[in-house]
Write a structure and sequence with these properties.
Number of strands: 10
Shape: globular
Helix content: under 10%
Radius of gyration: 13 Å
Largest sheet: 6 strands, mixed
Distance between the termini: 40 Å
Structural class: mainly beta
Strand content: over 45%
Number of helices: 0
């Protein structure tokens, strides 16, 4: 079973940047398409970006051009570079496998506010 730990969130002003990290322990990370999700209270978890094992990325339209997803399979780590952040990006961000999700981590809170 893979354990996931998200980090890098925080409180930033609109227009600023953050880089989130997702560290995976255990085997399996390198064989799975991974995704970054976000959730706000009262709403369903939303897939923001995904990346295949070979690095092919897919970004949802609402963050396209601002967010970049990447991964380092040797380090069992995935990243989400978030630029030009907007208040509507405020959420708890999670990472997980796309096809067969493991147990969810605690997430990392991103708050964009002036």
């Amino acid at each position: 079973q893979v354990q996931l730990v998200e980090s890098g969130g925080g409180l930033v002003q609109p227009g600023e940047s953050l880089r989130l990290s997702c560290a995976a322990s255990g085997s399996g990370f390198g064989f799975n398409t991974m995704g970054w999700y976000r959730q706000v209270p009262g709403k369903q978890r939303e897939l923001v970006a995904s990346i295949t094992t070979l690095g092919s990325a897919n970004i949802t339209d609402s963050v396209k051009g601002r967010f970049t997803i990447s991964r380092d399979n040797a380090k069992n780590t995935m990243y989400l570079q978030m630029n030009s952040l907007k208040p509507e990006d405020t959420a708890v961000y999670y990472c997980n496998s796309i096809v067969r999700p493991w147990s969810w981590g605690q997430g990392t809170q991103v708050t964009v506010s002036s």
